[in-house]
Records
---
Amino acid sequence: MAGTKFSYVKKFELPDPLLPNTFILVRIDGHAFHRLSEAHEFMKPNDERALQLMDHAAQDVMNEFKDIVLAFGESDEYSFLFKKATAVYNRRHAKILTTLTSLFTSSYVFNWQKYIPDVALKYPPTFDGRVVLYPTSKEMRDYFSWRQADTHINNLYNTVFWALVQQGGQSTTQAHATLRGTQSKHKHDILFSHFGINYNSLPERYRKGSVLVREEVVEDARHTDTTPTGNDIQQSTENLEAKSEKKLRTTIKVYHCDIIQNNFWEEHPNILQG
Ligand code: ATP
Ligand code: ATP
Ligand code: MG
Ligand code: MG
Ligand code: MG
Ligand code: MG
Ligand code: MG
């Protein structure tokens, strides 16, 4: 390709490869969603519609980036793990991070109305994003444990906080003061004795966040709408054979399960394999 006398400026763009053979973790987080959730009247402590919208955007990201093997979402954040050997965009840092973050954001906006039809967006939501590289599966396990433990701590706090405000008649300042310095057991006690809420019976989505994995499902490839007319026996036999074929199809599954204990990782051994 012929250059012009100007094209030397392209050389000022520096390569930004991510270290080979390390896990690439991308975490996106809603910018100022405390404000966004208030401006758009999210239900507190958990607006399920908003969480489902986040899950939808994350699935769009996984459909586009086939090397993502696991995603975990809570509140206004999502973490995406690429398989260790991924060559996506030649592992270019900015290319991966900006494309993923902008796809997540545009999907969030694109699908907003589907999930929150009664509230129009008042301004464009934005997400920040970062890449973190982890060398071993131990750090990877600990990373996801860290995020799920965070989900639990925040949700317990927010559940008691909003019970004190919405049912206990406290101001938000009073509720923060009531909870200052309290241990987890004390929060469970307040919830149960004052508000009759058994924390462990709250929806798993709120307590554990969303876990997205790829799983192969057996799909029956039979076409029920192509009944042969009977005037070509040979043709219809071939159709019958084709009809009983089973196909393996990869789908994205959404769970709200524990990812701190071993169980999940034993059931999904491929996630942390090179
Ligand atoms: P930034 O401005 O870079 O986004 P932040 O404090 O919002 O800073 P995040 O990485 O978005 O940082 O934080 C994710 C979560 O990590 C937060 O929910 C917070 O509870 C927790 N967190 C933040 N800083 C620390 C820290 N130093 N150690 C442990 N947990 C932290
Ligand atoms: P930052 O820009 O630093 O991330 P932030 O205001 O987004 O600031 P976060 O720590 O990311 O702060 O917290 C996100 C906030 O968004 C939560 O504290 C909560 O108030 C609100 N939020 C997010 N998702 C929901 C939801 N599904 N239902 C109710 N509130 C939500
Ligand atoms: Mg943050
Ligand atoms: Mg945020
Ligand atoms: Mg932040
Ligand atoms: Mg957040
Ligand atoms: Mg381009």
---
Amino acid sequence: MTARLIRGRLLSFKDAPKSIDDTGSYTYEEDGAVLMENGHIVAAGGYDAVKSQAPADAIETDHRPHLIMPGFIDAHIHFPQMQVIGSYAAALLEWLNNYTFVEEQRFSDAAHAARIATAYFDELVRHGTTTAVTYCSVHKTSADAFFTESHRRNMRMVAGKVMMDRNAPPGLLDTPQTGYDDTKAVIADWHGNGRQLVAITPRFAITSTPEQMEMAGTLMREHPDLHMQTHLSENKAEIEFTKELYPWAKDYTDVYERYGMLGPTSLFGHSIHLSEREADVMSETGSVAVFCPTSNLFLGSGLFDLKTLDERSKPVRIAVATDVGGGTNYSMLRTIDEGYKVLQLQGQRMTPLESFYRITLGNARALCLEDKIGALEPGREADIVVLNAAATPAMALKMEAVTKLTEELFLLQTLGDDRAIVETYIAGEPAKSTL
Ligand code: GUN
Ligand code: ZN
């Protein structure tokens, strides 16, 4: 594949920003460039230095004055919920039963799953998201449709066939054995196939029997390198129902703990209403709490106490995600904007540097994928987003008053959406302009 050189202002994080203007946490190049070849970043830095390393036939694209960053990472999203987004419901369990469990049944149909998979990746690319940790439906067909399309586009995805064997319509149930067998088959077909990664995906404690939870724990022991994703402590009624179903459990987290499901590659969507004991166990096991601000607000689930989890003596690792279709937007820019407001309501602050760290390197670290994605550094995969902070008339006007990088980032966060994404590069190839 021909090498590509892209020119613009480069921003890439090295570590979590510790203050509003922590210049040591990132690298910034006013006249920068990234050289990409064979899906990877070969060089990134000042334009002249990078240009001198480029082969003579490299294709050069000038994105000045736009900002070039690592592609955005969404740590929790449901691909079969593209037609659930924006469904009118009071709270989680009603929303699941009245809309989500109805819609997801359609994914037993391979043609439907394939159509939605195409639309899904189009939407991610349009919004600058280059990696998304995704729930498919219970049907193996949905996972096959998902990975077929992701592989075709050469995208770095993490996804799993949902395991669920109770408390949902019959068309949406597997069994402990078929859930295990189908997950095994998805792993055999897709894990490590190109850029695809499979996650073990028990939906949540309510929709799995103890027998299925055992099977999920078994799968994790058999495949310790895989991610595990599920939901935890999102909603008060959900927590109460879980306690009824698992009367022996100390708390909700204890259910997952007993089946051996906590650990550094385990992602727990929402994790809003955690006790000190639960937060301690999450911390000790390196488990990740996934903050889904638009979803938590839309479903009235609660306010994620990010700063307390992050700054307690035993900190909990945190990722950020859209949770579409409980979440209301595919954009990680819209997501950090709503996340900022969730913190505001609790008297907490999230700096612009922290927001952009979280949706790039921060999420890559939370997924234990920082050796592959999340930074503009040689050797990393060339998943890149190009941002225009003056993409709309309102943004352009505000941009006139912007004097520094952190203000530009905050403008992108506050007013930005898919219109601010000029280009999305997937493994070194332009993917948005070619949609
Ligand atoms: N808990 C179990 N399933 C789901 C889901 O699909 N969305 C959300 N937000 N919470 C869940
Ligand atoms: Zn979810």
---
Amino acid sequence: MIDRSRLAVLLDRERGSFRARNPRSAAAYEAARGHLFGGVPMTWMNKTAAGFPLYLATAKGARVTDVDGHEYVDLCLGDTGAMAGHSPAATVAAVGRRFGELGGATVMMPTEDAGWVGEELGRRFGLPYWSFSLTATDANRWAIRLARAITGRPKILVNSYCYHGSVDEVLIVVGADGEQVSREGNVGAPVDPTVTSRVVEFNDLAALERELAYGDVAAVLMEPALTNIGIVLPEAGYLEGVRRLTEKYGTLLINDETHTFSAGPGGCTGAWGLSPDIVTIGKAIGGGIPSGGYGLSAEVAAQVEGMSGLDLVDMGGVGGTLAGNALSVAAMRATLEHVLTDDAFARMTELATHFTKGVQDVIDRYSLPWSVTQLGARAEYRFASPAPRTGGESNAANDADLDDYLHVYLANRGVLLTPFHNMALMCPDTTTNDVDLHHEVFAAAVAELAG
Ligand code: PMP
């Protein structure tokens, strides 16, 4: 068991050395506080274990340096936005050529790259018709609109403690007594999400059937494995059950592959042979340039196209001025063609297996009540054993001080984990030595805690 007073002392010590090590980041943060809301360019950047964020200087491949001159092995990779590695050469070249030599980032004209990207995403995810966005959030919003248009139904069903972007419908959880409630902290909800949504626990097919039986659910929006509340893997038969029940009740199935893309070149959908009606994705596919998209089955595309009165070419609520722009599409093409290739995924997955094994060794050595779960190129440790099987269980295993201790301990010794998770992601440039450095520092952090 964790000695809480020892943890408090160690956390305090590590925060002190973080402050001492990073005077320039601290000064930049202080200077920005009068001009930036919350002192940061985007409020999530305040999610930091030590009181202020590190300021970026340079980033290449699996490495970043901060303004105080420290180098880090980056296992955060922009919370998946940089799963292709920072500034991968092929993407840099394609983006440079598009923006510089050829010219034109946002012209409201298609480029030939777009058809190539649609075909490649079709090969990987098995859905033939693609449209682009700049974020996964927007891909989800637009997919939800199409699902409501086709089915004429009002509600969206999600899994408890999912995350699909700042989409109003998804901020709903299963409450302590099994009731449906707005997620704590939900900022300015337009209506209570219980009006627009239904929610069930992941891996609970009985609850899913109960909620779908109301007949008012346009789409189930889900990750094939939860990744935003630790990794929660599907149990045997669960995803087949979801597909069967959604078909039975006339509900569309949307797989959000934004994070589960780590499972392979076609995400979980490709790796596990799933057949959703719609796939949404964002973050990594542009190699760092804002990109996203949604893919539709032939049936869904035909249904939408067959409906009269939908304004798909102007102000109907689907699409955006900068979506599918020439720069973003050039970045997606280069990243998919040359960086996040089938071979790269095989290497990244091998490294994540090495990561998982090393963490499990430490857990075993100290008989910790923790677990580590891998999803392709990603792995995550969680303070619960056995590994949680629902979002609710995983949420109950949160331990903010322990999270902060491990994050700041690792950062002080050159390793970055994703601030929102204990998640480690491999990119094509991550090396065995990088993973070994994590193991060494993680083992030392745990040894000090164990005393
Ligand atoms: N879907 C999933 C599964 C995500 O994890 C996230 C972000 N963490 C999003 C969608 C939203 O991505 P973005 O913030 O880039 O729109």
---
Amino acid sequence: MNADVVPTQESTEATRYWLGVALDVPLPGLFDYYAPTPVDAGTRVIVSFGRRQMIGMVAQVKAAPDIPPEGVKAVDAVLDDLPPMPDDWMRLVVFAARYYQRPLGEVMLPALPVSLRKVTGYTGKGARGGPVARVDKSKRKVAVVDAASAAPVQLNPEQAHAVQAITGAQGHQTFLLHGVTGSGKTEVYMHAAQHVLAQGRQVLFMVPEINLTPQFEQSLRARLGNADQPGLLAVLHSGLADGERLRAWLRISRGQARVLLGTRLSIMTPMPDLGLIIVDEEHDTSYKQQDGLRYSARDLAVWRGHDLQVPVVLGSATPSLETWHNAQRDHYQLLSLTQRARAVQLPQVRLVDTRRLALEHGFSPQLLDAVKARLAQQEQVLIFLNRRGYAPVVSCNSCGWVSQCPRCTAYTILHRTQGGRAHNHLQCHHCGYHAAVPRRCPDCGDQDLRPMGRGTQRLEEHLAEWFPQARISRIDADSTRLKGSAEALFAQVHAGEVDILVGTQMVAKGHDFAKLGLVGVLNADAMLFAQDFRAPERLFAQLMQVAGRAGRHAGAGEVIIQTDYPEQPVYQALLKHDYQGFARYSLEERKAVGLPPFAYQALLTAEARALKTAVAFLSEAAALPDTAPELYPTSDAVTRYDPVPLRVVRVANTERAQLLVESDSRPALQAFLTTWSADVAALATRHRVRCHLEVDPLEI
Ligand code: ADP
Ligand code: ZN
Ligand code: ZN
């Protein structure tokens, strides 16, 4: 029985045990209930809330309720199908709720697999595994020396040093493993993981995406598992069915599985013996959740590692500037891999200045020649397109009309297929609005409507005309909408059944194409001039990553970037594969104007029917601290900017505006936000405005 539990004196009937229960409802605070028997914090309960029954989690065991005891309801049931959630998990969700300014219940419950938070969900039938704490740890030592046969690799001195530093860490240390693609970072993760497993501890291995790289999962299984331990590895990502997700979650939280390979959501999984956290491609924006609890799984990984006193490894060829800055000021320990692991040269990067060139459907003669040459040598070619800059809109050739979404301030984009079948239609990428392509211009009636800009589909068509012998395949969000189709397409490329691959961001990630000799990059410039201050950083990372696909195995790889702005620092750094130079330049620039990582930000976004309602709400929200300055002791250290309309103001008939608050002190900003978020929530209710607060926003 928990020592905090004090039965009430007044109770005339049976003894009551008072509980603070977290519920997944958009209201702050915990809700008082009582149970007839003692209940530990971290236990799930079924309660009546309003007219509904819900699953809640006991967050607090209390001596007395906050409201008069006669108004407190009993819980309908205490669920004992699982042991209570462990303390360290409770600390993690409490921290996340506080840091990201969300009600605890909206963090705790969504962190569980769906069936554990539905009243009619999990019954525990056949899945009972006993309390995590009682599992005998001595039985779980993993004989990793069987597994080593799958790893004939002799670490080079830099890799060996990195593995030594990670496995030799006393308590917590965050490491930044920095090395270009192919420098052998994965090899370092594997060795460090094997060491930790051999000590009887668990490993959390986070990757930005799993669906796209099944080979990676296979090689991890082969390396870290062995014949006696088929269940050693558990995998978690949002693409799993509820049942699969629950099973993986149970196996890892009971300590039966020893390695968790997962996407961002896996950071919230209880792991009784967690001994190492790896965050691969730590700069990837997929680690940031974009709705609900807008957390950074990378940042929570660092917090969790610190809380548990275990090492955390952040790996990247192009670390985020936040992480790089932390390494520069010795908050993180930098481990560098400066060479490609195999005797393969880095690809040669060429910039093609397109200012005075006649392009043919977006291709420079240089790029077309290079494609021809590579195909003649039986090598593969990747044509990479930055989707953002290349959205094909339909326009009228005589009056300039452009296809626009009637519900948003955005253009609708031409799509030529749907679900794998040919089907011309227009679609809004913000709200999903669909429409047929008009036969004639709605403004002037002219029939000469044409796509403007080039999407991946049009590139594919032109390439097919120029290179009729080549087998061309396109990989983007459209061509891979069907489940399993991405895997199938990638498998074709790996099997050498594709000569030219046309693709977007999806192809840049994680793949190791043995025969790829040339990467051509079209229209990267669009991203250079995006309003977002992180755009150049993202462009650099993306181009480094896609360049890393070329020449990984044999021969000299080549990257051709077409640009109107070859003198830009981003491109000059890419020429030399010079991440450090780029980072130094960018950090100086950020410091001069006081942007992250030299400032900490939070963004309040409001949605209303009319923009002026949203803006009026934000103005009032910005003024809240002035009406009660005593509640905002750090407000002097926090800058509140003016509300601004969003770039895409209108989405699905609501209009949006945002307000940025900023401080050069994280604690000052946090103290401010704690009071402000509660005041803002109350104000939003009065104004009937929907809003959300995002701490450490990635896009502003
Ligand atoms: P990264 O994760 O940095 O992109 P990988 O770990 O995938 O790099 O390594 C790239 C390639 O080099 C892989 O095929 C890997 O097997 C190989 N490799 C890694 N380390 C070594 C080494 N020490 N000796 C030989 N080959 C290595
Ligand atoms: Zn027209
Ligand atoms: Zn729209």
